[in-house]
Write a structure and sequence with these properties.
The protein is an alpha/beta fold. 52% of the residues lie in helices and 17% in strands. Strand 4 and strand 5 form a beta hairpin. The protein is globular. The termini are far apart.
């Protein structure tokens, strides 16, 4: 009888432990926004290929968001680490823009820097689907300001 009691009691304790674990785990579970749950918890960029971004923008009839940066630039690194990884900014920019990140010191970067007359980094520029610049800003900005910047650009031709 003792053997049945201890094995039954042990089974009961395991059931209680599993129940409590599930109960507490469900209370601490956060529902992730759609952008984060589909693997886009950051702004997805085409790297160093403005021509490819322009081609995609024309095909999709989307504006182009350009992150013009330099590898040594501290504010550029902050943008990548903080602003571009914000869930709301990622959802907005991934849905509304073809995003391209360009190292302005390699590949076609130096010639684009001259063409666009860039003076400092980071420089963020939004182009319409035909490749005409419509809005730009220089320096680090927070995610909410980046979203406002993007919304403002979408109203321009």
């Amino acid at each position: 009888m003792t053997k049945k009691f201890t094995s039954g009691f042990f089974l009961y304790l395991i059931q209680v432990a599993v129940f409590c674990t599930l109960l507490f785990a469900s209370k601490n579970t956060k529902v992730m926004p759609a952008a984060a749950s589909n693997g886009s918890s950051h702004i997805v960029f085409i790297e160093d290929k403005f021509d490819e971004a322009l081609k995609q923008a024309k095909a999709q009839n989307k504006y182009i968001f350009v992150d013009a940066y330099a590898t040594w630039c501290g504010p550029c690194k902050m943008l990548k680490a903080r602003t571009f990884t914000d869930d709301k900014a990622a959802a907005f920019f991934n849905a509304n823009f073809v995003n391209v990140s360009i190292d302005m010191e390699k590949g076609q970067g130096p010639s684009l820097a001259v063409q666009w007359q860039l003076q400092a980094y980071p420089t963020l520029i939004i182009f319409n689907p035909q490749g005409k610049p419509v809005l730009g800003t220089v320096g680090y900005i927070k995610a909410d300001d980046l979203i406002r910047f993007g919304k403002q650009a979408l109203t321009k031709q």
